[in-house]
Amino acid sequence: MEYTISAFVDKLLQEKGVSGLSDEVMSQLKSDLVDRAENIINAEILANMPKDAIEEFEKKLDGGSDEEIQEFCRAHISNMDEVIAGGLTKLKNIYLADMSA
Question: How many domains does the chain have?
């Protein structure tokens, strides 16, 4: 999923018209947007996780592998792809809201 988020961020920056920045600044901007995307997606996952699965989910977060966490989420959230897409759409709407900035 990391590659997908990174590709999404690249496209988002292109849509925003971000260019002419140094490699260092562009790298930091991309890193910040990836972090924001992950935070929004995580919030969406928690909002859609059944209440009775949250405690077990937190245990997976503390000690499970990425694969175990993804499997757990898919097992407990039937529309996981839509949840992720919804989170990315939220980020896009926020980031592109002020095209003059």
Answer: 1
